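Quick one, T. Sequence first:
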Amino acid sequence: MIEVRELRLVKAIDDHGSLVRAARVLGIAQPALTRALARLEAKLRGKLFERSRRGVIATDLGRAIIAEGSAILDSLESLDRHLAEARGTQTADLNIMAGAYMAESLCLTAAAGMLSAFPGTRLRLLSANWAEVPAAILDREAPIGVMDLRGFVPDPGLAVEKLRPQPAIFVARAGHPLAQQASVTLADIMTCPLAFIGRAPREVQAPHVAAREEARAKGQLHAAFPALVHESPTVTLKLLPQSDAVAGVSVILALEGLRQGNIVALPWQRPPWASIHPGIITLRNRALGAAEQGFLNLLRKADQQAEEEALAWCKAQGVPSACA
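Structure tokens:
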């Protein structure tokens, strides 16, 4: 007998046409979703989806389950809503899709405010590489997306609101060899293992490529680039005190570690391209609810606070704060 959670799994895969996006919406890891789907197909003795270049497509068996299962899920959702109303405990779900740098800074600050401002809203903060955010909004995985806007070509169906640029710096463990120098260049940084996200905007990639060529010409290039790939900057920052790795992060994300002395900023005269340009994307002409508007207001407040803190740190350290 098929279970409700299995119906939700099948519907999510069909709605989003991708195991990766379905897993994100369901709040589980993609390998776990793949295993759950395989178990369900084994139980039903038939394939539910076929994979294609454009994603996954429901089979005849899959479509039959989706047709019947959708009605069941709609009825259960209606029942839950009526029960919540009767108890006076109705809740609403709000998904926010954000690039990791935004999810772990501005969005977390806004989320903290949501807990008290909108106690009847269940907030789900979905983190991904910045390049995946627009498709998630267009696919209606979330009504609000927050991402680095550099290199982003807006879709006609999306509305874009720019936030304040954030200066970025390179950081490493206290006592790191580069931290002992009076100044370092980007080519010097390329001699060390670099921790980086899987995909960066072109404006960031080009200077790194040039610096690697310079380090290679000197015979000092670190072999692997990046040496560590991870989408979470806060996880990366936890790695630094245990290694000679270097990471580029926004000042606002590095501040806690800098204040605690776990990491230090390398003496690098940051150019304006070393920055993050956050922005909000939503579906054009889609009205936002009270909780969604509330989150955006809190996000704008967090954005202003982050700018003030980052500029104050740059001024105190004598670090250029211009962003381009």
